[in-house]
Amino acid sequence: MQLTTLSINNDSVVNCPRMIYNLSMTNGSNLRFHKPARATLKDVANLAGVSEISVSRVMRDAPNISASLREKVMTAANALSYTPNRLAGALKSQTSNQVAVVLPSMSNIVFSSVLDGIESVLSKHGLHAVLGVSEYDSQRELEVVRELLAWSPMGIILTGLHQDPAVAGMIGQLDIPVVQIMDIDGSPIGSAVGISQNEAASAAADYLYAKGYRNIGYVGAWREKPDRSRARRLTFEKRLAALGSPLIGSYISDDRSSASVGSSATAKLIEMHPELDCIFYANDDLALGGLFYAMRSGIDVPTELGVMGFNGIDIGKATPLLLSGVETPRYEMGQEAARLLLSSKFEGPQVKDLSFKIIDGETT
Amino acid sequence: MQLTTLSINNDSVVNCPRMIYNLSMTNGSNLRFHKPARATLKDVANLAGVSEISVSRVMRDAPNISASLREKVMTAANALSYTPNRLAGALKSQTSNQVAVVLPSMSNIVFSSVLDGIESVLSKHGLHAVLGVSEYDSQRELEVVRELLAWSPMGIILTGLHQDPAVAGMIGQLDIPVVQIMDIDGSPIGSAVGISQNEAASAAADYLYAKGYRNIGYVGAWREKPDRSRARRLTFEKRLAALGSPLIGSYISDDRSSASVGSSATAKLIEMHPELDCIFYANDDLALGGLFYAMRSGIDVPTELGVMGFNGIDIGKATPLLLSGVETPRYEMGQEAARLLLSSKFEGPQVKDLSFKIIDGETT
DNA sequence: AATCATCTTGGTAACGTTGTCATGCAATTG
DNA sequence: CAATTGCATGACAACGTTACCAAGATGATT
């Protein structure tokens, strides 16, 4: 008699341990073939003939354990394939090895790089990232933080410096280290690591001005959802004005960033301002879209149109023309955030400026 | 007389050894002003004048709660800005709202898309992803799984079908739902969602053959770290051979995938096999690199060289030539994995084939 | 009027660990 | 040699919540 009907997978007849339990459960209502229930400290202690606390100590590599005891415990633990229950441990000891990470979005390559960096450091120290995505919504962020803090993480990493004030309060109650990433132009709750978005914007303006562009435009996307991108644009505008070459115009798409959006936005902006000779884009995806649009349309880059991106993603380094832009250390930002979290117990809150770089490419 | 309670954790009038303790501490020398410690059920219950269990029920939205009780509890909870301790809750109830997610890498856009999809569904149900990265190493994957399972997640999502056998065993002990993503050509532990990598490879071979290419090469990277990419190549080769147009040659880089690697690999492969008229790439990053290389070198695409990618990332849709390739539903894969996890309690393990699509672009 | 089901609340005992003592024993010391 | 130290182990009571059972209150049913 066949139990499963829905599987497309014919060979699922083999190798399906759970089915066996299902069979035996139908046997009798209270007669339960104990599925190999997760072993506990007590089980290991009983088998090894020692006390529970000793097992606990061996598992935690506590000091002052005799070789013989360790031996006994380890064999028993292996025999039962014991895995400690972190829930209980964390509850009692009030410390866990989880780190809450709140990012505004996972679809942006920037944040996956950051997360990659975070994970690379955390995993080396036996820690885990618990992920929360705020969707650029401050209310949602608050909820996410509350939910993540309910797990008593040993620290928390937030994106940006502008959270709802309640966030700081909630973190304060737990008294765990906080690191805010991306931006350092402001006053952080605890530590902060990132670049000065303002300086980057000014530097970009200076760079384009020095390159001789005088009719500069700007393209953004997704209604400038991260506040810091708007702040960056405003600084860019201000600096251009100060240089005596004010921004000609800008176009902010409603859609989220992508190369396609970059193409269409570029088309629209050029149509609105035919005198444009250069565009600064909110990120590299948009800039690539702009570059590709120019290539398709026979607009010569960089003479007819300068293209400048932001972030310095890998693809921009392989395009026929090396993409100019601001290079931001995204992976390193993640790494440094994790490191700061780990060290902040001893060193207290810090602000770390990972500087950006101007890529003087072939598109400007 | 006022006790000046700095700690809200003081017990009520009844039976409170702790209060005495606190009292004796107040006249001790080391009187410490703690910051407001995290409120517990007991604190809320005392303030509201109800039992702890009632508070618990209100917080969990249990049925059969009178409006007046809910009212009392909620005001008390807000006053203390109470947040339930999930650690304790999960320990007692043996269920948590965390989902373990094990991915081979975070630097690959494929997996960040998948994770995005997973998160989008999980967050709608109040669940959280706890992340583990295996770095394509099966031993490391085993460790990561063990570590994540120690938190008693309510489910686990794994990448690929080829884990160390011990993984299935460990999951079996907890008896939680498993979903394996990406590949469906094999026998999953529980549910699986993805595409048939073999069919995709065959379809790509058919497509290129139909387009008239007869001297086809292959470019991969990172020593084909995900097993499935190797399997895919082998199927691709086999199919080409069956069509009577065997693979001319292939180049597998040691470095991880990137457009730059795609460019240099393309150069090398063409040098080795000047008769090549088409290259199938292991992913779109590599393919874009190939396309850009051709554009830089004046090689006409698609007549002199056909370029076919794998995945269908957004940038390939904005390039001057629409990138041909196999489009895989990465985001949907993540979503579906999460959905399967949620439903598998009721519906049991399933295998879901999210079909791929051939993008008949301008580069072939 | 007695019985029974239903709704609402509370009391108690876990869940599986670890912190804090306490204890026994060997090694050191003046 | 008594006194002191250090090491190795154990007993017990938490950590903050929820499962389980009990019980009073209310209303419906016979």
TrEMBL record, chains A, B:
<dbReference type="InterPro" id="IPR046335">
    <property type="entry name" value="LacI/GalR-like_sensor"/>
</dbReference>
<protein>
    <submittedName>
        <fullName>HTH-type transcriptional regulator GntR</fullName>
    </submittedName>
</protein>
<dbReference type="InterPro" id="IPR000843">
    <property type="entry name" value="HTH_LacI"/>
</dbReference>
<feature type="domain" description="HTH lacI-type">
    <location>
        <begin position="39"/>
        <end position="93"/>
    </location>
</feature>
<keyword id="KW-0805">Transcription regulation</keyword>
<dbReference type="Pfam" id="PF00356">
    <property type="entry name" value="LacI"/>
</dbReference>
<dbReference type="GO" id="GO:0003700">
    <property type="term" value="F:DNA-binding transcription factor activity"/>
</dbReference>
<keyword id="KW-0238">DNA-binding</keyword>
<dbReference type="Pfam" id="PF13377">
    <property type="entry name" value="Peripla_BP_3"/>
</dbReference>
<keyword id="KW-0804">Transcription</keyword>
<dbReference type="InterPro" id="IPR028082">
    <property type="entry name" value="Peripla_BP_I"/>
</dbReference>
<dbReference type="InterPro" id="IPR010982">
    <property type="entry name" value="Lambda_DNA-bd_dom_sf"/>
</dbReference>
<dbReference type="GO" id="GO:0000976">
    <property type="term" value="F:transcription cis-regulatory region binding"/>
</dbReference>
